[in-house]
Amino acid sequence: MFMNFNITQPDRAIKDMLLRKINQKTKPIGALGLLESIALQVGLVQQTLSPRLINPTILVFAGDHGIANAGVSPYPQAVTAQMVYNFLQGGAAINVFARQNNMRLRVVDAGVNHDFVTHPDLTHAKIGYGTANFLKQTAMTMAQCEQALSAGAALVREEVASGTNVFVFGEMGIGNTSSASCLMRVLCDLSIEQCVGRGTGMDDVGLAQKQAILSEALHFHQLDANKPMQVLATFGGFEIAMMAGAMLGAAEQGAILLVDGFIATTALLFAYKLQPDILAYAVFTHCSGEAGHRKLLECLNVKPLLDMGLRLGEGTGAVLAYPLVLAAVNFLNEMASFESAGVSEAKLKTESTGE
After folding, report:
1. Number of domains present in the structure of the chain
2. Do 242 and 336 belong to one domain?
3. 295-324: pLDDT as tens digits
4. So what's the pLDDT on residue 352?
5. The domain that contains 46 carries what CATH number?
């Protein structure tokens, strides 16, 4: 059964106290840049002057796409399942970065065209064996779309109940940049050329073919941004829909969302179209090297933490940015204030500006 989400802006009553605490640290006002903005954001979400990041969990949603067999990717669809096994064996980039940051990784089979055996790190939540080819029909039925959203929300509710209050959202699915490009094209009302990139390493000929195929699909369905559920069901992937549901559920539970690259941001874009206040809970961790992501961030009017040319997905950029989010929380909790350190606030400010 589809869940109706109810996300509200965090209470702003604590904002002035948080700003006062941030500004009283032994530094010039604003000297820690975006870290100060993140400290304020996390404090507002958690409604405390002493926020904490507890049991950070990575959710990697995997799903196959019917459009992958239409010539939009140089990789065969079978790579999705192969990469899921790589995640479970601990050999992927996301595994390396997760171990480095002591973060738990949970892989979710949202709709891979393969039957997996039981594994402690794998969650079986398959909606179907990949979506349909949206060149010819909708990628999923509305019932499947609602099921995926509800399943994603249920997953994060389990994690929150176990004590997690910060999530990284990642994905794996051959063909999912095509799905995300079409979602972005409709929901942001941009040209297809602004939205479509090379995905998993296409050459110029492949890119032109990909743009032509997706343009054909967009023309066939003739959708607009006023019906986001219909847009998601038409062009989305099971992993994108389930990730969007998880994002909505996490925000509803008051958790922090660490949003990864192009695909994850597209899932957040859909969630934003349903519940605009979700942005208060989302930290955009990096700007992907995938064409379209920068425009997508501009469409949402948000600023990413990192810009390193990453375009791997899996949640890798979000995990790499996690230490910065942790640093923001730690400076708020541990850095001395002018008063506690016995430092003259006015003198420090004057010296820092060279006056």
Report:
1. 2
2. no
3. 999 999 999 999 999 999 999 999 999 999
4. 42
5. 1.10.1610.10
CB atoms under 10 Å from CB of 342, counted, come to 8
Nearest to 219 by CA among 297, 136, 117: 136
Do both 34 and 91 map to the same domain? no
Domain annotation covers residue 106: yes
* DSSP output for 280-335: GGEEE-B--SSTTHHHHHHHHT---SB-S-----TTHHHHHHHHHHHHHHHHHHHS
Residue pair 243/125 in contact (Cβ under 8 Å)? The answer is no
pLDDT at 348 over 60: no
Do strands 256-259 and 57-63 pair parallel, antiparallel, or not at all (unpaired)?
Answer: unpaired
Clarify whether residues 107 and 249 are in a common domain.
yes
Closest Cα partner for 261 from 300, 238, 292, 232? 292
Residue 321 lies in a domain: no
Q: What is the pLDDT of residues 158-207, one digit of tens each?
A: 999 999 999 999 999 999 999 999 999 999 999 999 999 876 677 888 88
188 in the same domain as 83 = yes
Q: What is the rounded end-to-end Cα distance, in angstroms, of the chain? A: 64
Q: What does the mean pLDDT of the chain come to?
A: 94
Catalytic residues: 314
Residues 110 and 62 sit within 8 Å (Cβ to Cβ): yes
Residues near 235 by beta carbon (within 8 Å), at least 6 away in sequence: 134, 139, 179, 182, 183, 186, 217, 221
- Is 323 among the domain residues? no
